[in-house]
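Example record used in the benchmark description.
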Amino acid sequence: MKKLLLIALLALNLQGCIFVAGAAAGAAAIAIVNDKRSVQSVLQDKNIANTATDNLKADPDFRDAHISVTSFNRIVLMTGEVSTADLRQRAETIVQAIPNIAHIYNEIQVKGSASTLSVANDAWITAKIKTMMLANRDLRSSSIKVVTEGSTVYLMGIVSHEQSNIASDIARQVTGVEKVIRIFQYTD
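Model output (structure tokens):
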């Protein structure tokens, strides 16, 4: 009897996993359909971010650094913390060597590494903003990338000015957000 109960519980858990996986796949498909970038551009952005991250980690001075690289339509956002201004500039130089980058926003801060609590808070802020954006029917949030670092929110994407204003207003409403920076490319 215990074995049957255990099997039933495992089956229910697997169904939940399948549902979550299906929902995630559906959300990803919707995001791709609404994304204004071509498939080639999406892959190029992924390659830029991955190459930048790999190149930074290959340098011994950056192995323990907290640097995040985000690319959207060949626009690169670098965030995180390093210990010196020289390392900040060197990180940008490493990323500049990657082909096909249109522009780099180097928002790396010169200070000690962020605490685990700060990183978790940033992730929570990002999740709240994305959730609020998804709930807003006037916003095509799948064409907007949200990055939070040190309670500063960076919004990237290809949007109209109206969409930019809606997204910015949503981000500003979230508790814990100190500043919102728009890195949008505009369609109008």
